[in-house]
Design goal:
It is found in: Endomembrane system. This protein is mainly alpha-helical. Helix content is 58%, strand content 0%. Bound molecules: zinc ion (2 copies).
Length: 316
């Protein structure tokens, strides 16, 4: 597999833009009044994509030598350049993507980056562009190290990661219904709409990248119910189209919690517990502030001047 995936994605850019144009036109005709696109939301998504792309280019310069180190010193085998090796690489990376994505909803440090993708209340092709420049800091790249140990060179790792993300553009739409037998094998628009929903029945399900078999195997699959329309976004809305605020609000909230809680166990929870820990902490702070008394729970050491900085994350 010797080709440049970055060039492939660049070549796909007109296809992505054409899909956005078609979807906006189609939805305005078929669901007038639903306002499934907004200029401000779409521009925010585009800005987030450009910021993330720039950060990614820089990050790969530092990360590729790490993959090269593991490939040179710890690889268990060497794959010939065949379609078999491509399929093994594709399946292995897609499984690792599932693990990364599930961890991103269960570990606040990773959620701080991933929340950007979920914080829009709209769901359309442009939502796919809504990414965080903080993924390299959060450590997304760590999840691909096993591919180097499996015997895949760094260039192929970068390529398959980009191909996986490129595929995922096409599942961010409300213009496509269920796709028959494909729903059993692949991530589809219907499956990914559920993933972006905050309904009680849907929240934190369907972590698939390309293949949905991992959700079905590991018990995180939920089917879209036509009688239960997805409500998109996070539990407490972000209320901003500012890409910088969207990128950093959860990091700021996490840092404020880390400072305000007492004890190292709570400080570690502020960084690595599921996002629900933070939601609960913030709710207790708000309750204690409105009651005008010290927060219950004793050891959290709540201080009043952080409340405004908090955005409650999506509950796991
Ligand atoms: Zn997600
Ligand atoms: Zn998505």
């Amino acid at each position: 597999m010797q080709f440049d995936a970055e060039l492939l994605l660049l070549a796909m850019a007109p296809v992505f833009l054409a899909c956005i144009g078609w979807e906006a036109w189609h939805l305005r005709r078929t669901r007038p009044g639903a306002q499934l696109y907004s200029w401000r939301d779409t521009f925010c998504n585009a800005a987030l994509a450009l910021m993330q792309q720039a950060a990614d280019k820089l990050a790969w310069l530092a990360i590729i030598p790490v993959y090269a180190f593991f490939y040179d010193h710890y690889r268990v085998t060497t794959w010939p350049a065949t379609w078999v090796s491509f399929v093994v690489l594709f399946v292995a990376q897609d499984l690792l993507y599932y693990v990364f994505h599930r961890c991103s909803h269960r570990v606040r440090w990773l959620w701080a980056a991933h929340v950007v993708h979920h914080s829009s209340e709209r769901m359309n092709f442009s939502t796919a562009f809504r990414q965080s420049l903080m993924y390299p800091i959060a450590g997304m790249w760590l999840f691909w190290i096993p591919l180097a140990v499996l015997g895949f060179p760094p260039k192929q790792i970068v390529a398959i990661v980009l191909i996986n993300l490129g595929f995922q553009f096409f599942v961010h739409t409300q213009a496509v219904g269920k796709l028959g037998w494909l729903e059993y094998v692949f991530n589809t628009p219907s499956i990914h709409r559920v993933h972006h929903a905050r309904n009680e029945h849907y929240i934190d399900r369907n972590y698939a990248g390309v293949l949905v078999i991992w959700d079905r195997l590991f018990g995180s699959y939920v089917e879209e119910d036509p009688h239960n329309a997805p409500l998109y976004g996070i539990v407490e809305p972000l209320h901003t189209y500012n890409p910088l605020k969207a990128t950093f609000h959860e990091w700021a909230s996490m840092a404020a919690d880390f400072v305000s809680v007492r004890g190292w166990r709570n400080k570690l929870r502020a960084l690595f517990a599921p996002p629900a820990w933070a939601a609960d902490y913030h709710a207790r702070r708000a309750a204690s502030a409105s009651a005008g008394v010290a927060a219950s729970g004793g050891d959290t050491g709540i201080e009043e001047n952080h409340t405004a900085a908090f955005q409650t994350p999506r509950r796991p």
